[in-house]
Amino acid sequence: MPSGPSNGSSGKKSSGAKSSKAIQAAKKNSGGAKGLPKQRQIPWLTIGGIVAVVALVAVIAVSIIPQYENQQELSAWAPTEENQDPSLAIDGVVNIEYPAGQHVAPTQRVAYDHSPPFGGPHDAIWATCTGTVYDTPVRSENMVHSLEHGAVWIAYNPDLLDDAAVSALEAKVDGRTYMSMSPYPGLDAPISLQSWGHQLKVDSVDDKRIDHFVEALRLNRYTYPEVGASCSTLPSSFDPANPPPFDASAPGPDAVPMDGGVADGTEQLPADMQVPAGS
User: Fold this and answer.
1) Which residues, 6+ apart, have CB-to-CB distance to 51 below 8 Å?
2) How far is CA 62 from CA 58, 65, 143, 277, in A?
3) 8 A C-beta contact, residue 110 and residue 118
4) What is the pTM (predicted TM-score) of this model?
5) Which of these, 105, 117, 127, lies nearest to 187 by C-alpha position?
6) 132 forms bridges with which residues in the sheet?
7) What span, in angstroms and rounded, lies between the C-alpha atoms of 120 and 68?
8) Continuous H helices in 100-161
9) Are 150 and 196 within 8 A, CB to CB?
10) ∠ Cα 217 222 223 (to 5°)
11) CA dist 180 → 135, 170, 174, 196 (Å)
12) pLDDT tens digits, residue range 235-270?
């Protein structure tokens, strides 16, 4: 019989080689000998950056949007040629026409028809109203004169407001020209706002009518007599650090009546006092 290599043996070798190649290929495709898929890296830095940007946008939106909405709301109360006195639409505003330029002496009192007063005879020297916050009550006759110059005076009852409420009121006044604020003992409401010929009494510093009143009447050229007059004074005529004191007693029989102030028709301004143009 012929001798030679067996076909069966050759077939086994060929089959074994193919199996070895298949195993190697499988290992290669499965990620190596361990057979575990490669892990993807999470981009934490990118995610953190996105979160920070979103948070910043949210903070800006929370702070800016309410301010924008508030400005939009207040613009509706600004005086215009067509609507010269928007305050007349504010619920609770009292409006009375008073003659201007009626002056009394520094020692005289006026028998005012409202408390606090918001028009009528007044001292020849006005109270400083350059965003002035007075710690003590101020003589009414001086405060009324500042209203004639276009100022808004916020009076408050110190027995009816806590420190937080007073501070909130101060924030509306402090440093804002043609504004003043002072305690007013015996006031029949927590807060009372005055401009020339206008008054509004409210119970809370959070009442939106406060801002509406100020927007409508502060320097409203249609509603006060002496447009362009100054709110500044000199310490020699009126010292805001030591103002004439408020008198809480009832005016006596020698008080000047509302219809009979001393009308000299002139205002004696200190020679070096500057009258600002506009607001």
Assistant:
1) none
2) 6, 6, 39, 37
3) no
4) 0.72
5) 117
6) 180
7) 38
8) 140-148
9) yes
10) 55
11) 11, 9, 8, 13
12) 899 999 999 999 999 999 999 999 864 444 444 444
